């Protein structure tokens, strides 16, 4: 396979991968398999996610990418009849360690959902929600966390004068950025994003992608996306899944310019999926 | 260019809409018909129509207010003959307040201006032709005098004031002395039992003082009562017999054939005011319903306060914590079936468990002195407000549980996930996110529960509602809310008036008026809850989950 085989290379602009300091196996997934009841959703997944990089999960619908993402903070625990084999470790510690509380895991692993889901509370209360449930009562800490998070989420200038207004009055793009601000307010180490832009217009999408670039200075980001362009634009590494299996995982540049698997090549070029 | 058929106003396939609307029409028709019946009959109780003097074929003369007109029993449907019912009053003379007269035998009716209608403290109303008013100062005012009407109303007002003073004296001040005496007697018996000589002497002294105060008050009350007896109204009834009515007996007097429309409206509102704000008289067939309105209100609100937390907590467990499976399904089915259990069964359960077991235990634990030294008179071990509220709370529990479960299930999954992903525990998610978001749905359940509870009668008869309660369940005496007290209830009042009243003719209009009041009360309670719910909903407006 060569780069010339890419049918339409100009369509996808790949941002050159940047290597930064940090553990290469910050999140480590080993021989991971996962079942919903009788149905196997994931099979034999093994990949390492380096610290402070953006990793994109791509693949056709139903390939298991969202399932894997939702297992990183054990959101799938809400579903009845689930089962897994293998292990996922964060900084060497298994997330299934019985001594590790799910709540403390989720405090370290923030999540942004496909549909923006602000609480029917004020903007301020939405942002500081994670801190409140951690028991923070100090008003100055909450105020500071609110401003910092909203600034990081590039929303501060738009809402600073109406922090006490209902979050439900924001536009779709603002709501999604508010959800990002909420997810980073308690300074998690990892940020999971499940198709964060699929319900947004291109301008809002552009803002969120800019945001991801800035956030990766501090957070390790895993993003699930259906948009190849988005994966190419924002991620350092990309994993391609198909029917619950991990087909290929490499640097984004390699995946998009010179994939080693024919299936990856076919998917990226739009021939299936 | 369109073909004629496409102009048809009923598109194909929509022709049966009217059929689906039929159920609604039938239901609405019945509700509106019932409401109209209740409203018309209920309102007309307070209206004072002109009162005729009627000559009958058999030589009788009747002065009375037309009460109803109906087809004579046994007359042919093709040739109906009617009979009229007149309220003639003066029960002590006529034996009955109401008379039936064959319409065909009426010779004629006139409306003389001097007919006087009286509402009396005892023996129901009276219609008579007044002759003379003997005033309290000894002066006699004949009906021909232009000052008669004015001085009559003055005397009625004075008599009313005296009566109120008497009520204040007997009910409140003497009542207070009585309850203090009761407490002192219990304390005395206890002291005697334990051989505390000092205490015995002290309580005896206290009782002696109270007895002296009681005697004083009674003398005072007698003095007040006799003062009211002095003024008298002399008149003649339809048959020409002389009638003497002490003014102290008269609650209200009016000249039904002299009143203009404005006067009738004023009389209407005066009676309405008495109906809502005063206490009942004459075996509940006259007077007001204040204690029943108050009792219904307090009981319903208290029931809602009990059923809401209980139901919400149960629903949270069922929906959020319990392992979903066959056992939970059985529990759900049982809860839903609880809503179909006849209410009298809840009454029996309330009597057996709440009153005898729970109330009995409370008495044993906390009121053993009272039991021992007060002839085993129970405090909580008898029907009361608390047990009524608990019984109805139990009865309406399924409504709240089902509504809360539905409301919790309707909270968007995204909100739940967002909260958990932010590191909130399950309980924090429930408290911070789920409960606020499902509050409107929970309130819908509470509204339904209130509507059912406020109108329920059968179980209440067993666990604490009475025909006439001397005291309200809430008053100025600590602890202000008396959960052990028996109380009056509008629903029971309707039953009591309609089926237990000694004078069913006199009670009939009151049944309608009481029913109307009960319906209005339930509607008001519901409107209040709906207002709260809409305010809560406004907070979630624009949610785009």
Main sheet summary of chain B = 6 strands, antiparallel
- The CATH topology assignment of the domain at 2-9 and 23-102 and 109-116 and 188-268 in chain A is Rossmann fold
Radius of gyration of chain B: 31 Å
The CATH homologous superfamily of the domain at 290-538 in chain B is called MetI-like
Q: Which geometry of chain B do the CA atoms define?
A: flat
The CATH C-level name of the domain at 2-9 and 23-102 and 109-116 and 188-268 in chain A is Alpha Beta
Please state the oligomeric state of the protein chains shown. heterodimer
Treating each run of at least 4 consecutive H or I residues as one helix, how many helices of chain A? 11
Q: What would the principal axes of the Cα set say about the shape of chain A?
A: globular
The major sheet of chain A is characterized as: 6 strands, mixed
Q: Structural class given helices, strands, pairing of chain A?
A: alpha/beta
What percent of residues of chain A adopt helix (DSSP H or I)? Answer: 25-40%
Q: Which series of helices and strands of chain B comes N to C?
A: HEEEEHEEEEEHHEEEHEEHHHHHHHHHH
How many helices of chain B does DSSP assign? 15
Question: How many β-strand runs of chain B?
Answer: 14
Structural class of chain B: alpha+beta
Mean pLDDT over all positions of chain B: 85
Span between N and C termini of chain A?
20 Å
What is the CATH first-level class name of the domain at 290-538 in chain B?
Mainly Alpha
CATH architecture of the domain at 2-9 and 23-102 and 109-116 and 188-268 in chain A: 3-Layer(aba) Sandwich
List the helices and strands and how they pair.
The complex is a heterodimer of chains A (273) and B (545).
Chain A: E1 27-36, E2 39-49, E3 54-58, H1 65-72, E4 82-90, E5 93-94, H2 102-108, E6 109-112, H3 123-127, H4 129-133, H5 139-152, H6 156-159, H7 172-184, E7 190-194, H8 202-215, E8 220-224, H9 228-234, E9 237-242, E10 245-251, H10 252-257, H11 262-268
Parallel strand pairs in A: 3-8, 3-9, 6-7, 7-8
Antiparallel strand pairs in A: 1-2, 1-4, 4-5, 9-10
Chain B: H1 17-44, E1 53-56, E2 61-63, E3 65-71, E4 82-87, H2 91-94, E5 98-102, E6 106-110, E7 116-120, E8 126-134, E9 140-142, H3 148-194, H4 197-229, E10 232-236, E11 242-246, E12 250-254, H5 261-277, E13 280-281, E14 286-287, H6 290-321, H7 326-338, H8 343-366, H9 368-373, H10 385-410, H11 413-421, H12 426-454, H13 458-463, H14 490-500, H15 504-539
Antiparallel strand pairs in B: 1-2, 1-6, 3-4, 4-5, 7-8, 7-12, 8-9, 8-10, 10-11, 13-14
